């Protein structure tokens, strides 16, 4: 029996918040564990990453100039410095579809602090309402920093839209929180090896 809130140390609101925090969803008078079974997969999945820590030796022959591993499935970016003294793991956004995803080996060919952005021809075809150019600043889809890859139109870059991190949400690039791309930008150099898999 529910007493008035001022008569109890635990209110209905506190009980509901506690149930939500513990992973229970209160439904028709009974608590059920959260699950994805039986639910349709949404077009954009939630921003949860199941990080897999990798060994650089499984992906690279050496660490010359450092190495960046972009794991599309676990939505994470890993970095190793050439001397192996620095290892970083960052959550990331990944391409929206397999058609937009490019996998394989590349390298950083250019680093830009405060990048400008132009949509690719295929982006403009899919989204004709998009602007032709966005200069550096808070509305720039590349965020505060961009690492340009040897593949045309592909980048590891920041984003001001933090909802994208951990999701399949990009048009082909790998996105990081702005504070993470700023850190990675300082660690990586032109010539750093990159693998997307």
UniProtKB/TrEMBL annotation:
CDD domains: YkuD_like. It comes from the Bacteria. The keyword Transferase applies. GO terms for cellular component: extracellular region. The active site is at 157 (proton donor/acceptor), 173 (nucleophile). The keyword Hydrolase applies. Keywords: Cell shape, Cell wall biogenesis/degradation, Glycosyltransferase, Hydrolase, Peptidoglycan synthesis, Transferase. Residues 66-197 form the L,D-TPase catalytic domain. Pathway: Cell wall biogenesis; peptidoglycan biosynthesis. One of its GO terms (biological process) is cell wall organization. One of its GO terms (molecular function) is peptidoglycan L,D-transpeptidase activity. Belongs to the YkuD family. This is L,D-transpeptidase-like protein.
């Amino acid at each position: 029996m529910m007493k008035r809130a001022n008569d109890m140390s635990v209110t209905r609101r506190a009980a509901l918040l506690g149930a939500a925090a513990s992973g229970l969803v209160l439904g028709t008078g009974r608590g059920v564990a959260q699950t994805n079974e039986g639910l349709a997969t949404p077009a954009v999945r939630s921003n949860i990453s199941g990080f897999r820590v990798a060994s650089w030796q499984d992906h690279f022959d050496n660490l010359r100039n450092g190495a960046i591993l972009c794991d599309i499935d676990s939505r994470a970016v890993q970095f190793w410095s050439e001397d192996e003294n620095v290892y970083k793991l960052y959550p990331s956004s990944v391409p929206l579809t397999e058609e937009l995803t490019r996998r394989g080996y590349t390298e950083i060919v250019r680093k830009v602090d405060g990048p400008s952005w132009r949509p690719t021809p295929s982006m403009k075809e899919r989204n004709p309402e998009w602007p032709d150019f966005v200069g550096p600043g808070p509305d720039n889809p590349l965020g505060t920093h961009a690492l340009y890859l040897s593949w045309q139109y592909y980048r590891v870059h920041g984003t001001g839209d933090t909802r994208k991190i951990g999701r399949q949400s990009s048009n082909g690039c790998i996105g990081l929180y702005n504070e993470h791309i700023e850190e990675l930008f300082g660690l990586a150099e032109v010539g750093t090896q990159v693998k997307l898999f």
